[in-house]
Amino acid sequence: MPEQSAFDRAIATHESGPHTRTGEFTDDWLIGHAVNGGVALAMAGSALAAELGGTGHPDPFVISAYYLAASSPGPVTVHTETVRTGRQVATGEVSLWQDGPEGEPVQKVRALATYGSLDSLPDDVRTAAEPPPMPGPEDCTKALDAPAEAIRGVNILHQLDLRIDPATAGWAVGRPSGRGQLRGWLRMPDGREPDPYLLLMAVDAMPPVAFDLGVTGWAPTVELTAHVRARPAPGWLQIVTSSRNLAGGFLEEDADVWDSTGRLVAQARQLARVPG
Amino acid sequence: MPEQSAFDRAIATHESGPHTRTGEFTDDWLIGHAVNGGVALAMAGSALAAELGGTGHPDPFVISAYYLAASSPGPVTVHTETVRTGRQVATGEVSLWQDGPEGEPVQKVRALATYGSLDSLPDDVRTAAEPPPMPGPEDCTKALDAPAEAIRGVNILHQLDLRIDPATAGWAVGRPSGRGQLRGWLRMPDGREPDPYLLLMAVDAMPPVAFDLGVTGWAPTVELTAHVRARPAPGWLQIVTSSRNLAGGFLEEDADVWDSTGRLVAQARQLARVPG
């Protein structure tokens, strides 16, 4: 049996009661003091797959997560619920809880999701956003090579091979483009290949697109919805994030993810709070 | 007291127990045999506002609805729950239920949403997608003037003053552009001005963008998430819907809504099933 990858360990949960599972967040996936929202989403999605496992609908098609409070390193209790099981899809709900300062349960994330079988979908691709022209991974900037002050406390970067198109990396040296777009490549350094759960992490793995708009500081996610549209092929993932609407203290951030065959495999949109 | 508008009557609910409200769907908002998903979303959002009313967070900022089964004309029972109340926002859950053929309760829609106060947001607009150049309402095609066979059973059109940019209306006469974009104008014929709930309906009021890709038949929504970004000004709403990914039997459909001052007031994305 192959050793479990770092990512699979990070999102693993184990049944601990009826519709209840437990997992653990570690320091490794922190951005500042909060566990990366994509990792929390992948844990929630994976736990809900276990809940819905008997329904014949194994894969997340769409998941909407509401981030109620920052997730911290430590144990996580996961509650799952089957909302409806249909012929083609099943819908469930999942919540992640951690102990608060007095030991009281605090809900960190609640999500709704619809699952189906990616392998049962017809293979037609009628339209698909093309991946943008950009340099290959070897000609992009490793996120870990960014100036130390730009990535201090961004522990998650040590878990990823994340590379940023230099044309969209000016913000790291004080020259944001103002266009509101970041482009990058992602793979796992331990060779863990993409699957739907890695996609759920990938849609929130890029630096905040607000950086490219000249906004500094992390932008906490209020809500994130991801569509998984196909099972990704092995290899690099290509990610483009963009925003068209930074206003009123919030911004919308879209993420598109292509696999190594150039197929659009995930689309996500989040509403994030802009640091004051 | 002014007479209640048709739209307000359609989405009204009344408290009938703890965290329980009742409403009624009528024939007026049908598309084929199903009540329009935007009307169901607006009813859910309005009911959840009542649940969260005491929290000081009156307006929907983001709502994600999962459509479990088609909503039908008849009574609706609405269950609401406060998930978390914070200083700046509150998050809640809402579900719409109707009786099934044997009188058993059937869940039709479940949604999560975060509310806040639109009026308390700072007025900064750092980026904003501009409305596209298109003819004014007077030079667009009234949806009700479409060929009879194209709008048979689309009762909702009689409740709206919906006008389609002729450049994106070719599908109505068998000539879809293949670009996957529709542009239109919306206002309520009885003068009911836009507010956040009308925006929740507006993001699902246009014909399916799949029509412009040459796909006929209605595309049932699996999930729809809407961001309300500002309180809309009185007057026409300008709506653009688009899709970049029709594949595997599903399509993503994005909707952007601008108010009469040209401000982007709502953004929405849905995952819909493509008619086989």
From TrEMBL, chains A, B:
Superkingdom as given in the UniProt entry: Bacteria
Record domain Acyl-CoA thioesterase-like C-terminal: where: 137-274
Span of domain Acyl-CoA thioesterase-like N-terminal HotDog: 26-116
Residue ranges of the TM segments: none
InterPro entries linked to this entry: ACOT8-like_C, Acyl-CoA_hotdog, HotDog_dom_sf, Sec_Metab_Biosynth-Assoc, TesB_ACOT8-like_N
Region spans: Disordered: 1-23
Pfam families according to UniProt: 4HBT_3, 4HBT_3C
Gene3D superfamilies for the chain: Acyl-CoA thioesterase, double hotdog domain (2.40.160.210)
PANTHER family per the UniProt record, alphabetical: CHROMOSOME 23, WHOLE GENOME SHOTGUN SEQUENCE (PTHR38110), THIOESTERASE DOMAIN-CONTAINING PROTEIN (PTHR38110:SF1)
Name of this protein: Acyl-CoA thioesterase
Phylogenetic lineage: Bacteria, Bacillati, Actinomycetota, Actinomycetes, Micrococcales
